[in-house]
Q: What sequence folds into this?
């Protein structure tokens, strides 16, 4: 497999690839086992998920351009890494995502408009973490990894059967918090899965600036059971995530997955990647597109690809239309919202501040 | 020729790099990209990757390694990408950088400048609009600069870099595109920045810094139309705090309004009001007032216009101190 573009020392761990770029199935002694329950219908669902997600992402970028969102962090190119991994989790596995894991939240049932409302600046968060078992999206790089470690320690201490999952990027692996999280999870042998999407870039910084070895090899050094997979191969991502969850769930300690993928879009809508990377790199990765690859595989299998694609397209059109309508008609929050939820318990100074300001606004609007 | 605050900061860094080979810049995305705001645009290609250093993504690492470089005789200038990402470096800033001169009994100097684009009003998501200056003004051993004008951005950054103490340098990011046609002049040797009366007046002293200075000048213009004369003071430095300039003004006006975006409780405004109450008690005609961000986490961007002190809220405070004044004047007659 050609991951030679990565300017880091060749690692000790192999990179699992179950579907090559031409959509040919490559046997994998270790991981094939985790695909045995997957039916053609499941693959068609993967395809639909990825197509809908890509459409949601494009729609969000367009909405940002039109001033409907403050900012957007596109996930273009990372669909397989996100869908393949989240679809391998149980609904009660608790996930701690970063700001780019839109696909993870959406696959767990978060509505696209609730997700986008935060990027619009209309509310602080778009879902109840305890309802969907996903924490709020984390912007401070790496902080959520420690939260996942702590949640996993809790599972271990109270004898639960869940796994706690942290998502983060290649850049995040430089943060103290991420390294401390691996130490904590390993120390207590807590059921935690660290899922790193190595999309080659942290804004303008290539992954080699963060790590001179494969990221997976570093995790291995912390004593974590580690897999490195082609992150644009949904079968490899799904199988490795199943294997890692299985490991953690059975009390064997924390696990780590490095999913090697590529950020095909800009870092965020505020970014201009032409300032720091060559277009050839993007072209090279377009040939490894995760959606195309699954389509090719479905063809190989002799499936009725056209009908699956049509179904996916319809779902994408439907989501895009509803999303646009919901966002463009979304009302701005009321001033009261400023002061709500600062504290869980009664807090008089906040109440006073709220009253003062709302009275001031009322006077003001009353024309005083 | 007109220049912007971004360009003035860029020139300041350029001139510092040019004149002292021990000056070194460190930060995320500051090299090839030129920084997410482009403050360091072009500097890596001119001075090389060992003078303008793209660092791994770790703020504690950036500040901690800047300290090591300072031990080695360098004069590091660190960029924290956004205000809200300062906190991972908190230990290195307040327990290390701030204290090393004291701890070493004056033998180790820490001429480190930490640039932080700060403040709200640009429609950003969480952690991109914070005003954390009070934490650092509260910490002995750190100097805290907060320029507002383009000229000050240039000269105060030169002063910060030249200073043998650590300086936390707050850049008012929402004013990055502010322009000036004035010439950018290096600071006079040995001069250190002081508060500045940016608009003289007689009735009320209004004090701000960084982004709010502009709001205060607008307020002064609006008040003038209503027959009230505001004296606008731009603090420029939050540590040391130039209370003398503020006190001298309040002794003339008898009224004080302090304005900042940062939250109210235990903020810079509280400090100024306390100092002025101690020093000018007999001159005060009204209790000093504060107009600030609320004591809440920085809100979602579609609520931020409420949170940021605007012209109306400043004028409301001015009216409050003036009305009281007029009422007592009337009673005396
Ligand atoms: C503590 C902290 N420092 C800096 C930033 C600014 N920032 C946002 S995303 C990013 C790069 C993150 O790269 P990576 O971890 O690879 O994730 P990706 O964006 O590629 O998904 C940076 C530096 C931040 N959000 N938090
Ligand atoms: Mg990345």
A:
């Amino acid at each position: 497999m050609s991951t030679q573009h990565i300017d880091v020392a060749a690692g000790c761990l192999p990179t699992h690839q179950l579907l090559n770029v031409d959509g040919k199935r490559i046997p994998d002694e270790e991981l094939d086992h985790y695909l045995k329950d997957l039916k053609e219908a499941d693959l068609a669902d993967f395809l639909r998920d990825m197509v809908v997600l890509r459409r949601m992402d494009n729609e969000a970028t367009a909405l940002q351009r039109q001033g409907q969102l403050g900012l957007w962090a596109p996930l273009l190119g990372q669909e397989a890494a996100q869908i393949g991994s989240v679809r391998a989790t149980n609904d009660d596995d608790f996930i701690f995502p970063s700001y780019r894991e839109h696909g993870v939240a959406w696959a767990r049932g978060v509505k696209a408009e609730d997700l986008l409302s935060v990027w619009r600046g209309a509310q602080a968060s778009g879902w109840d973490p305890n309802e969907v078992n996903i924490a709020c999206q984390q912007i401070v790089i790496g902080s959520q990894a420690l939260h996942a470690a702590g949640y996993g320690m809790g599972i271990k201490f109270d004898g639960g059967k869940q796994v706690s999952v942290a998502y983060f990027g290649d850049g995040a692996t430089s943060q103290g918090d991420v390294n401390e999280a691996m130490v904590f999870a390993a120390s207590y042998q807590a059921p935690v899965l660290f899922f790193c999407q190595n999309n080659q870039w942290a804004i303008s910084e290539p992954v080699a600036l963060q790590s001179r070895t494969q990221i997976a090899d570093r995790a291995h050094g912390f004593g974590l059971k580690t897999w490195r997979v082609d992150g644009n191969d949904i079968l490899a991502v799904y199988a490795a995530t199943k294997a890692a969850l299985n490991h953690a769930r059975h009390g064997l300690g924390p696990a780590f997955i490095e999913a090697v993928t590529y950020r095909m879009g800009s870092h965020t809508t505020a970014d201009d990647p032409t300032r720091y990377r060559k277009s050839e790199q993007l072209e090279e990765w377009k040939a490894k597109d995760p959606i195309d690859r699954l389509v090719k595989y479905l063809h190989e299998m002799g499936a009725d690809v056209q009908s699956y694609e049509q179904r996916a397209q319809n779902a994408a059109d439907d989501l895009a239309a509803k999303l646009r309508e919901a966002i463009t008609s979304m009302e701005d929050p009321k001033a009261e919202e400023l002061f709500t939820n600062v504290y869980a318990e009664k807090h008089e100074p906040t109440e006073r501040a709220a009253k003062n300001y709302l009275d001031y606004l009322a006077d003001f609007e009353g024309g005083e | 020729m007109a220049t912007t605050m971004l360009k003035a900061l860029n020139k300041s860094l350029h001139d510092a790099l040019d004149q002292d080979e021990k000056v070194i810049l460190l930060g995320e995305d500051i090299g090839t990209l030129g920084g997410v705001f482009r403050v360091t645009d072009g500097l890596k290609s001119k001075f090389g990757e060992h003078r303008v250093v793209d660092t791994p993504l770790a703020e504690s690492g950036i500040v901690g390694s800047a300290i090591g470089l300072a031990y080695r005789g360098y004069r590091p200038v660190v960029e924290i990408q956004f205000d809200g990402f300062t906190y991972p470096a908190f230990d290195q800033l307040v327990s290390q950088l701030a204290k090393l001169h004291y701890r070493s009994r004056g033998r180790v100097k820490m001429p480190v400048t930490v640039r932080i684009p700060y403040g709200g009003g640009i429609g950003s998501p969480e952690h991109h609009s914070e005003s954390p200056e009070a934490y650092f003004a509260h910490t002995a051993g750190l100097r805290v600069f907060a320029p507002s004008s383009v000229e000050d951005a240039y000269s105060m950054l030169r002063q910060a870099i030249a200073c043998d103490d650590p300086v936390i340098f707050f850049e008012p990011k929402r004013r990055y595109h502010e322009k000036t046609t004035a010439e950018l002049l290096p600071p006079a040797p040995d001069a250190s920045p002081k508060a500045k009366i940016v608009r003289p007046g007689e009735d009320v002293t209004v004090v701000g810094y960084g982004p709010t200075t502009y709001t205060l000048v607008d307020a002064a213009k609006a008040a003038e139309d209503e027959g009230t004369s505001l004296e606008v003071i731009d603090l420029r430095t939050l540590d040391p705090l130039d209370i003398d300039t503020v006190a001298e003004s309040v002794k003339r006006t008898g009224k004080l309004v302090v304005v900042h975006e940062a939250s109210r409780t235990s903020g810079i405004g509280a400090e100024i009001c306390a100092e002025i109450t101690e020093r000018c008690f007999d001159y005060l005609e009204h209790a000093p007032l504060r107009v600030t961000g609320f004591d809440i986490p920085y809100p979602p961007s579609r609520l931020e216009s409420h949170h940021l002190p605007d012209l109306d809220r400043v004028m409301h405070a001015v009216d409050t101190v003036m009305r009281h004044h007029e009422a007592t004047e009337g009673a005396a007659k």
Q: What stands out?
A: Residues A 169-171, 199, 201-202 surround magnesium ion (ligand 2) (CB under 6 Å). Chain B has twelve helices and 14 strands. Residues 311-332 of chain B form the longest helix (22 residues).
